[in-house]
Amino acid sequence: MSDQNSESENNHLSRRAVLAGGTALTASLFLPKNLRAADFPTAEVNTTGLAVTDDTVTIGILHSVTGTMAISETGSVQAEKLAIEQINAQGGILGRKIEYIQEDGASDWPTFAEKARKLLVNDKVASVMGCWTSASRKAVLPVFEQHNGFLYYPTFYEGLEESPNVIYTGQEATQQIIAGLDWVNQTKGAKSFYLLGSDYIWPRTSNKIARKHIENFMEGCEVVGEEYYPLGHTQFNSVINKIRLRKPDVIYAIVVGGSNVAFYKQLIAAGIDPAAEKPIVLTISVTEDEIRGIGGENIAGSYACMKYFQSLENENNLAFVKAFKEMWGDDIVIGDVTQAAYLGPWLWKAAVEKAGSFDVDKVREASPGIELTTAPEGYVKVHENHHLWSKTRVGRALADGQYEVVFETAELVEPDPFPEGYQ
Amino acid sequence: MFADYSMSELGAIFAMQGFAGLILFSVFVLMALGLAIIFGQMGVINMAHGEFMILGAYVTYLTSNLFGDYMPALFGTYFFVAMFLAFLASGALGLFVEWALIRHLYKRPLDTLLATWGLSLILQQIYRSVFGAREVGVTIPDWMMGSLPLTDLIEVPINGIFVMVLAVSISIAVYVMMFRSTWGKQVRAINQNRVMAGAVGINTEWTDRLTFGIGCGVAGVAGSAFTMIGSTGPTAGQLYIVDTFLVVVFGGAGSLLGTIASAFSISQAQSIMEFFLSGSMAKVLTLLVVVGILMIRPQGLFSLKLRK
After folding, report:
1. CA distance A271 to B145
2. What is the model's pLDDT at position A88?
């Protein structure tokens, strides 16, 4: 499945984007001036044969829109299309309109690799916005490194990776975990933690970092249990009984997918109401997207630790949420990863303009140090290690499915994909 | 592990854990009954079983929205209506699928596996197109959420009790239909000797269709009940299919009693091991034991004596 968006659709979308474009306008204030294609001859800005013409540049979108992961990845696709539309409404990149070719990874990792190869080799796309699970990223990584592609990856993930061909726009594990643990310890006086997760690399690595931090860096704190359940597990009564027995101050839950829904429903059915905070439920895996499936009334009172919540009150975010809803409908919710996906095209645009070229090598060189003042989450900056400096926030889930932000770090948190002392 | 706890605390935990095992047992019974009817009585391997369950879950979702919008006063009771509608919807789809697909494949049992697998993919994509790729949140009436404190320490989840009551009632209903009704007699006759049953005047075609429909309908009710404890999404049915087949095959195809015995032993084993080991290890050990027993006893725990 691939669809190249037509010129007429493009124009139509552009008009809507202008109407919608609070963010676009804010962003344009920070631009030096309107860049024109004539000032950047194609032969100069594209020396490696990418899909760049005198008035267009083609990028790829590579997410699952069918299969299990479609639940999560749909939001990322929507955010990326919104960003592309807004960039085009501002005049594109180096005077060129962005066109995209969308491929479906179909929740299947070999398919991701095959589609990535197609995008890079056949379509010669200048960059790719895509992937969601670590498994899909690991599958496409060799392809991107072999063909020197450039991937913007939106999901918060376990770290332990730093590819020259990837910009990680979500948080790596230490950014997401440490600030939240410190917060719950300092403001809630929590001393004992029960770690829980779905059984695959992200929850396991994250809990490993959490355990190291709790045991080595938080005075008088301990882990009283650590447990993993297979993906898709739907029966949590046993672990809930174990939690009762251990009486932790905090349940630290990294449960994903359909299991999430089962876990929170059974937690509340077993008489452990997150709102009572006995124990406190702290998670890093539930965004506003997941709450829709869980039901706000089942999770209200839990805390989530990530970098973005839809309810953030700043100008960038208000404009972003407005534009997003105008494009995709009023009843849509925006989670952490969706916002991170939205940053992809903007970060790429900034890097291309700084480099004055679409060439992957030059864009890579230009990327570290790129700043975005217009990000819905607030100011972000690309680190040398290709991750973003970003703030970490804690939100308290409300019954209406939104989070109320109760804490944010004073400074940007430095990304540290290979944390020393945590492995 | 238990040194720091008083006897009463331990007693309470074990009581609750026993209860957790019983809930798991009820969930397994609900999942497996519909498949046991179809697989056991007709020999059809229905890979789309999970999707019939999810149809029931979506019907529940629609019913809850309907009651929420138009009859908020009766919202507390919608679940019973939803379960009935779920039975009708999944049952009707079952009748249709039998007519359009399954009946052409009775002589090729392995092909039913492939055909119903394809059907499951088609149904998943239909759910995705109609209801969206995201999971939908089904609002459960307040009285069904929360827990019932029996003593200071022992709390039992109300939805768990509900699932148990439902599992028992459906088992009894299926038993009565199977062993006390004309339809049941016909099904059993066909199962024992299809040609002979036809020769004595049993309408085998219609009985097959009805059996398939009832099996799917029971799956729909199970799906409806599972909105209380699990997720409702296009692919949520896949979460149940492995456990379902495990229970039915381990119990011995063709034996409803075997299904229940197998659900009981698997759920108890899993729940006890989950308590003492980690969740993933419990699953691995359960599967190993089941595989081991099936190697020694390929026909499953219980098997019917059939004239081959």
Report:
1. 9
2. 95
What Å distances lie between residue B259 and A140, B36, B264, B266, CA to CA? 44, 7, 9, 10
Gyration radius of chain B over CA positions: 20
Is B5 in contact with A70 (Cβ distance < 8 A)? no
Q: Which two tokens stand for residue A60?
A: 């790829």
B-chain residue closest to A69, CA distance: B133
Supply the pLDDT for residue B307. Answer: 52
Of A66, A235, A265, the CB nearest to B24: A235
Q: CA torsion B125→B129→B130→B132, rounded to 10°?
A: 100
Tens digits of residue pLDDT in A319-353: 999 999 999 999 889 999 999 999 999 999 999 99
Smallest Cβ distance to A292: which of B27, B134, B238? B134
- Per DSSP, the three-state class of A129 is strand
Decide the pairing of beta strands A403-408 and A393-397.
Answer: antiparallel
- Separation CA A75–CA A77 (nearest Å): 5
Distance CA(B131)–CA(B139), nearest Å, equals 16
- Put simply, the answer to whether B13 touches A74 (Cβ < 8 Å) is no
Q: How far apart are CA A135 and CA A67, in angstroms?
A: 15
Tell me the whole-structure pTM to 2 decimals. 0.82
* Cα B146 to Cα B167: distance, rounded to the nearest angstrom: 20
Task: Give yes or no for a contact between B15 and B229, defined as CB atoms under 8 angstroms apart.
Answer: no
Q: Is the pLDDT of residue A13 over 80?
A: no
User: Can you tell me the distance from the alpha carbon of A306 to that of A336, in angstroms, rounded to the nearest whole number?
Assistant: 7
| Global ipTM | 0.80
B146 → closest Cβ in A68, A261, A271:
A271
Contacts across the A-B interface (CB distance below 8 Å): 135
* CA-based nearest distance B65→chain A, Å: 14
Distance CA A131, CA A21 (A): 26
Domains plus CATH for chain A?
2-171+312-389 (3.40.50.2300), 173-306+393-408 (3.40.50.2300)
Is A289 in Cβ contact with B146 (below 8 Å)? Answer: no
Closest CA to A59 of A105, A5, A11, A110: A5
Distance CA A166, CA B247 (A): 45
Which is it for the CA torsion B76, B81, B84, B88, positive or negative?
Answer: negative
Q: What does the DSSP assignment read for A18-79?
A: HHH-HHHHHHHHTSSS---GGGS-HHHH--S--SB-SSEEEEEEEE-SSSTTHHHHHHHHHH
Exposed/middle/buried for residue A93 (C-beta within 10 Å: 0-12, 13-18, 19+): buried
